[in-house]
């Protein structure tokens, strides 16, 4: 994901809500391309570059990239963003017996929530379930350097 402008809110770029469907993403992309096309918008400098619109579409039209993007941005979205169903202390998670950098917690669907040590180092508190779309907020102290 190096070099991608993940600081930009792709939903705002395409004027979409966070629950927009794939169809809506597609039509918003075409709308944004027309609205911000340099040839059709000569009276004022473009506020959004075509490259940003294309990047927004590339990410939001791919379920995998969109899920990753949403996850990275949930932290910043705060109270207005999608809310995890519940919060669980990391102490209630269990270390994965195979991969010790992964911690899991049982979901009511029978699968488990996963959070990795990488996530935690990056300040990500959201654990997704591998069996359904549920999320939990994972409570832990931020890692300290000393
Ligand atoms: Zn689940």
Automatic annotation (TrEMBL):
Keyword Lipoprotein in record: no
Keywords: Cytoplasm, Iron, Metal-binding, Nucleus, Zinc
The family this protein is said to belong to: Belongs to the DPH4 family.
GO biological process, one term: protein histidyl modification to diphthamide
Job of this protein: Required for the first step of diphthamide biosynthesis, the transfer of 3-amino-3-carboxypropyl from S-adenosyl-L-methionine to a histidine residue. Diphthamide is a post-translational modification of histidine which occurs in elongation factor 2.
GO molecular function: metal ion binding
The keyword Cytoplasm is assigned to this record: yes
Protein name per its UniProtKB record: Diphthamide biosynthesis protein 4
Domain DPH-type MB: 84-141
Disordered as annotated region, ranges: 71-91
Source organism, top-level taxon: Eukaryota
Localization: Cytoplasm; Nucleus
Organism: Lentinula aciculospora
GO cellular component entries: cytoplasm; nucleus
Major place of residence: cytoplasm
UniProt domain J: residue ranges: 9-73
């Amino acid at each position: 994901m190096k070099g991608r402008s993940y600081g930009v809110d792709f939903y705002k770029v395409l004027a979409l809500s966070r629950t927009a469907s794939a169809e809506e993403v597609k039509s918003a992309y075409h709308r944004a391309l027309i609205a911000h096309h340099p040839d059709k918008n000569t009276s004022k400098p473009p506020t959004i570059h075509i490259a940003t619109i294309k990047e927004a579409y590339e990410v939001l039209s791919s379920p995998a990239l969109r899920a990753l993007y949403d996850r990275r941005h949930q932290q910043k979205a705060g109270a207005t963003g999608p809310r995890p169903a519940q919060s669980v202390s990391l102490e209630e998670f269990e270390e994965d017996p195979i991969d010790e950098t992964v911690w899991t917690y049982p979901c009511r669907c029978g699968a488990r929530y996963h959070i990795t040590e990488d996530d935690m180092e990056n300040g990500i508190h959201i654990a997704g379930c591998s069996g359904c779309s549920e999320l939990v907020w994972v409570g832990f102290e931020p890692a300290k350097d000393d």
